[in-house]
TrEMBL record, chain A:
<feature type="domain" description="DNA polymerase delta subunit OB-fold">
    <location>
        <begin position="63"/>
        <end position="191"/>
    </location>
</feature>
<dbReference type="InterPro" id="IPR040663">
    <property type="entry name" value="DNA_pol_D_N"/>
</dbReference>
<dbReference type="InterPro" id="IPR024826">
    <property type="entry name" value="DNA_pol_delta/II_ssu"/>
</dbReference>
<dbReference type="Pfam" id="PF04042">
    <property type="entry name" value="DNA_pol_E_B"/>
</dbReference>
<dbReference type="Pfam" id="PF18018">
    <property type="entry name" value="DNA_pol_D_N"/>
</dbReference>
<dbReference type="GO" id="GO:0003677">
    <property type="term" value="F:DNA binding"/>
</dbReference>
<comment type="similarity">
    <text>Belongs to the DNA polymerase delta/II small subunit family.</text>
</comment>
<dbReference type="GO" id="GO:0043625">
    <property type="term" value="C:delta DNA polymerase complex"/>
</dbReference>
<dbReference type="GO" id="GO:0006271">
    <property type="term" value="P:DNA strand elongation involved in DNA replication"/>
</dbReference>
From TrEMBL, chain B:
<dbReference type="GO" id="GO:0003887">
    <property type="term" value="F:DNA-directed DNA polymerase activity"/>
</dbReference>
<dbReference type="GO" id="GO:0006297">
    <property type="term" value="P:nucleotide-excision repair, DNA gap filling"/>
</dbReference>
<keyword id="KW-0239">DNA-directed DNA polymerase</keyword>
<dbReference type="InterPro" id="IPR023211">
    <property type="entry name" value="DNA_pol_palm_dom_sf"/>
</dbReference>
<dbReference type="GO" id="GO:0051539">
    <property type="term" value="F:4 iron, 4 sulfur cluster binding"/>
</dbReference>
<keyword id="KW-0862">Zinc</keyword>
<keyword id="KW-0540">Nuclease</keyword>
<dbReference type="InterPro" id="IPR006133">
    <property type="entry name" value="DNA-dir_DNA_pol_B_exonuc"/>
</dbReference>
<dbReference type="InterPro" id="IPR042087">
    <property type="entry name" value="DNA_pol_B_thumb"/>
</dbReference>
Amino acid sequence: MALSEFPDEEMAPSTAAGSLASDALMSVPADLETFATPLDRQTAEYKNKSDRFFVGVSSYREQYAQLYFTRLMSLKQRTLEAMKKLSPKTEVTNALDVEEGVEVVLYGVVYKEMKLKPCILDEYAKESALDSKITSSNFTADDDFLVLEDENARIRLEPEEGVLCPENIVTGVIIAVRGRAQQDGAFVVNAVAYPPAIIQRPMPPPSSEASPAPYIALVSGLEIGSVNDPLRTQLLVDHLCGLLGGGQDQELSARVVRVVIAGNSLAYDKEIPTGAVTAAQRKDISASLRELDLSLSQLAAGVPVDVMPGGWDLSNTCMPQQPLHACLFPGASREAEAAITSRNPAQPSDAMADLGVFGVNSFGWS
Amino acid sequence: MDAKRRFESSQGPNKRPFGGPTPVAPEFLSQEDDEMEEMFLDQSMAQIVDLQAPAVKDVSRWQRPPAPQLNLSTDKITFMQIDIDNIAGDAHPRLTPNTPGPVPIIRVFGVTKAGNSVCAHVHGFEPYFWIPAPAGFSPDDCNAFRQILNGAVGERATAKARTPVYIRRVEIHKKMSLLHYQPDGEQPFLKIVTQLPSHVATARGIVEKGIEVPGRGQQTFQTYESGVLYPLRFMVDCDIVGGNWVEAPAGCYQMHSPKTSHCQYEIDIRWDKLVSHPTEGDYQGMGKLRILSFDIECAGRKGHFPEPELSVCCAVFGGQGHFPEPELSGHFPEPEQDSVIQIASMVTVQGDKSPVIKNVMTLGTCAPIVGAEVLSFDDERDLLKHWSALVRESDPDLIIGYNIMNFDLWYLLQRAEALKVPEFPFFGRMKTCPVRMRDATFSSKAYGTRESKEFTIEGRVPFDLLQAIQRDHKLSSYSLNAVSAHFLGEQKEDVHHSAISELQAGDEQTRRRLAVYCLKDAYLPQRLLDKLLIIYNYIEMARVTGVPLQYLLARGQSIKVYSQLLRKARVKNLLAPHLPGGGSSQGDGVAYEGATVLDAKAGYYDKPIATLDFASLYPSIMMAHNLCYSTLVPPAMAKALDPAHYTKSPTGDVFMKAEKVKGILPEILEELLSARKRAKADMKKTDDPMLKAVLDGRQLALKVSANSVYGFTGATVGKLPCLEISASTTSFGRTMIEQTRNLVQEHYTVANGYENNAEVIYGDTDSVMVNFHCTELSESMRLGAEAAEVITKTFIQPIKLEFEKVYWPYLLISKKRYAGVIWTNPDKYDKIDTKGIETVRRDNCLLVKTLITTCLDKILIERNVQSAVEYVKSTIADLLMNRIDLSLLVVTKGLTQEAENYANKSAHAELAIKMRKRDPVTAPSVGDRIPYVIVKAVKGAKGYEKSEDPIYALEHNIPIDCHHYLEHYLTQPLIRIFEPIMKDVNTLFSGEHTRSISNPTPSADSGIMRFAKVQEKCKGCKTPLKKGEKTLCEHCQGNETDFFLESLSLVNQLEKQHNQLWTQCQRCQGSLTQDVLCTSRDCPIFYRRKKVYKDLSEAQKELKRFDW
């Protein structure tokens, strides 16, 4: 897709890659030839492999246990290796075989016992009518404690001072701990290891030929509909379309082969309301959606766009989030049908495999 | 354990026959049989099996701390006794010399301060009873009379009760009868001492029918204290009360040899050498009791009839060569066929936080469990043998569990018999006595009739938490799940027994899963015990009333009062008569007038209503008017007395005044109440939480005991009924309530200088509600306190009218039905108090409870009637629109007998039949609690025909009959509440909000729908879609976004709920990496899980109609 259809020559920015001074816009065009040469947007091969995250009809039959178990199995080795660096000699065992007083390494999923965590059973508790009025927004308490669960069993962790602070950890994290079991069955932790980030595949060397390396622009948190100045979004769109700045800026824009909007395009309070949608809410959301639609249409006219759902976008709650429906931005989809892809997180492109997520998968565990 | 439900009785405590404090009625067990059986066991069991402890590796870790060697002449043994029984044995050569034949020996079991177990054989205590001496009977006649009686008893004695001598002695003593005022003072009585306890009953029968008295011909006698259980007799005479500390002084005891028990110390002592310590000072503490809590799991077999592995399993483990015929009536495990697959046990030392032993024995391999010992066996017999050994070695004083009486213990004994494991039942404390079981019927006015098993485990007290909780708490369900939800605030996992068999048939990991579940179930009773301070409360109750711990659960209230009466009478030289009829359940039906209830001036009171209560009404009346057996004057005698010396009750009965003769009931009551005051005062002083718990248990026990004295006199089937006393007590109560009303209304008038005329709006048994017509809360409190003081002065001491609380606002519906907000101080209300309103009823669905509770909350606390009305209307609208959570509509009832046997058709029984037709394997059987919902049926269908399994209804989209719920469940309670407040209650049930009714389409695969062709309609306007249109018609297309949003919102909402529900189930089961198995139908989440799954599937289908 080329960046060339400027209707008004007068308004068209100067180009001449790199040769113009930064104040070129303020000066008389030196060379009309360069001025008239349109820049071509670079293109790259693109394969949308996000299909594997597309859930047709979810059965809702699976329990969470499978997820925890699989994650534990896949992170276990790395976590233990990290622990090995800390403490190469200590024997690794599992919660069942812990002997009292012997220092060992254990691994597993952390479960944090929180008394104040809201619980659906509270609805049935007696005298809830009176008590529920005193609600708290803080779900942590001083007596929260951690439990480590491996494939077989649970053991209560009692971290030594400063080793593993319950406040800093959430349920679901995979860790390895070193310590000793006490008589009462609790495990006193003196060291902890987390799974390190996976080693990344090296970036492919930039293609040496004439064209410089292509870019993918990642954008998130447009939060349209919030009190933010709409100018922000407009400037972004204009910039990516190459409508702003001097030749250098435009050249940069031309190297952007794709824009990925990685979530939270709508403002937080435009989250889908729970309960029946009222007319006022619908109106509000529709207005924001129209605004988003407009921006996207402009953007998509200039560059291929991927829209991914974020934490408070109009997608579903369960993992993996499903692509945003095309009917949410009818204008943009009509405008450039091929250019806009609403999609799931994974993005393999141009020999680079990357996983783009908004981060929803790291909160919301319970 | 699912199977236990079979016995969890669904019937609640019976309705109280009178208002106010329940006249506690007695219970009956045939006591004589009891003794007979006890006595001769030792002999019949003499040929006992060789008790070879099975080869358990290192049993020492299970044992008690080692017992130090004692020096007989310098060391005393002090121990807390917990069980006392008696046997017939050979006389001790030194302690009871020259006694031929079998003699009764009392065994006292207990534990020392250091935690060592003790068994004391107490010798020389002779059974006896009394009869009045015939006129002119002299000491010289004693022997002749003895011989006659001895002969008569000899003739009647059964083969088992044959002894060389039956009546050992006849003595003359000066005594008085407890019943009736005795102006003549002490009279001669004959003390008849028998050889064995069972001879007492035989001799009693003889003298009651008539016996030849030397020189005076045939005479019949009233007997005295002839129905006292022998161990209780011993306790009374030695001043031993249940669970107190006793001492064998140095030099007074000998070691019993060879040892016959598993106790660490086993001693012989004469009964008069044993010292009983009153529960004071150092002796009020609790010994280091060892408590064994256990639970078993059994394989349910019939549920899996077609599976061949199971039949193999049955053949191998169950010792049955054939596979049994399938029965359609259910699949409750039968001890003859179904194996015990796991037993989890936990031994805790009283007062310690964590158990000393925690293990689980499994049939088949089982992966290890943190913090618990796993013992796996291939042969079920070994499993049983080991458990029996565990009990012997760990030597618990108490054996607790949930429904162990009717299930676990019963099952184990039956199973051991079926498998021919003769050594299994020997887990009592006596080496040669197996554990015995028999059917017992417990019947009591207060607790209803219950059938149960009774176990004799020598020296150990079996204590079933289910029974204790059924007695002490009124709950809507007594399943372990419901009980733990109620008291511990947690839901318990409930694994269906078909799942149990599956887990058992799996590998060591699945069996481990089951073992973890089993361990939890074994731990819960212990936690309940700790949480509810049951040990403290029961031991204190035993100490206060003087009966052994075991009587508290196995018997009713009357034995407790009787024990106190006997003790007091003994001190006063009085004898309690043995009344014929006492001890059997005849003569019921004699009624007397109960408490009074003043007419309720129904309405909604926005002004503070002061409540004046009589403190301990009935005990204080009995004390004030000196009402007692020993002060009651027979009408004939009353004429001869000076009226100044007696009180005539409103019923016309005459009682002597305290100045002339002090009654012993008032004295017992005074002691109880002053002891309660002391306990309460001590409680304030101490900081030790253990002692506090003991004292609190004591004050509670004292209070209950004081209140049960009145009931004892009124229990017509009791030990010593005396309706003159109970009827007089209630009659005094009635006049007092009326007197209070009159005094208040006469005193607090404008004429007397008060701002308004006071008005008594309601009064019940022991309380009076007064409306002083003042608007200030503090003013009403002041007037209330003042009135209580003024009126108290008009009554005889110690009757006391107390001002306790103010209701503001107060909603008085009718007699015994009211609700109000309680204020005990002017700044902050305490809580909502309701009586007789559907907030706690067990047979209702949750919807009613929530609705009524919320309404009361809105009316009384928010004082916003309008919002309550709105709430009701919106709930009704939700109900009609089928938006109510199904779990709120489930009604649960227990199937107490085979469904066909119900005389009246009832919803749950009909459903049981229906479910059996559908699938006999999963259908409920007797003892199961059946949850159901009311669904729409053909027009004119009876109520009971409309019940349906909630899960079935959900899955098949069977519409709920919301009108049935509205009419049968909601209308009446709502009318009751709203009638006093609203002008026209009917507006709640008619109008705008009742006009939208949802009528779900029956699902496509059933009934007539199978013939219907489904045509897609536009999501917007419901127009049938044309070809090529998938979601919306051409006219609605423009608003696609809106419709999409709506669908999405629904899916999201449900997904969130789905998440919350499952995460809760994960928390409850205590594991993240293992699948949730629980299918507890007592848990509301179970239904919601099902419902949300179904809703979500549907909502998602709708969402997917939009093109992707």
